[in-house]
Amino acid sequence: DAKTTQPPSMDCAEGRAANLPCNHSTISGNEYVYWYRQIHSQGPQYIIHGLKNNETNEMASLIITEDRKSSTLILPHATLRDTAVYYCIVSINSGNTPLVFGKGTRLSVIA
Amino acid sequence: GAGVSQTPSNKVTEKGKYVELRCDPISGHTALYWYRQSLGQGPEFLIYFQGTGAADDSGLPNDRFFAVRPEGSVSTLKIQRTERGDSAVYLCASSLIGAETDTQYFGPGTRLTVL
Predict the structure, then answer these.
(1) Are A85 and A7 spatial neighbours (Cβ–Cβ below 8 Å)?
(2) Smallest CA–CA separation between A87 and chain B, in Å?
(3) B79 touching A, CB under 8 A?
(4) Model pLDDT, residue B1
């Protein structure tokens, strides 16, 4: 079973920041938080991951609480192409460990 | 460079038939995964290869499902005596083992429909 809890759906206005929450209260000390997204009819796409510190890349920012029990993925300026299902996953090392997906959050970006 | 590719993109078969689904990982990636995704659900793990050997096949639902990776590159997922419940999108992913947090790169999937 997935170790994460996410809201089933969210809406966001185009051009605004999309903040997607994730709860992972049972995360272990050596587990990372990964975010993937899946645009309709495509395979999941890696977005970002982090252990303790906040992370930022060209796609998004990841904010992890100090107790590591929750995190937020931030898309700073959402576009229509960001409409997708977003999955928050905790994993020791996603390179050699199967990913356990939940149902994710379906983000709809609205013009 | 080229990403993970999967063929065919769509496969329609009849109940009881045998099917093979192919995955071409990113060149040089040593780890390869198969997942299955039913409508409205997240992907579910089936099997994981490190090189040529199956490191973890705990996700295979029953003995009708089998996968091989004979040369440590291309992999084939084989399903015998298909059932209507096998209908799903079958996803393949690959990763490069070595760095502490290698990520998995997914292919577009094969949509299997069993009539």
Answers:
(1) no
(2) 8
(3) no
(4) 56
In residues, how long is chain A? Answer: 111
Q: Does the pLDDT at position B83 exceed 70?
A: yes
Cβ contact A103–B41 (<8 Å): yes
A100–B45 C-beta distance less than 8 A: yes
* pLDDT band at residue B98 under the 50/70/90 scheme: low
- Is the pLDDT confidence value at B63 over 60? yes
- Write the CA distances from A51 to A14, A37, B29, B96, B97, integer angstroms: 30, 19, 24, 19, 19
Low-confidence ranges of chain A (pLDDT < 50): none
A94 with B40: Cβ contact below 8 A: no
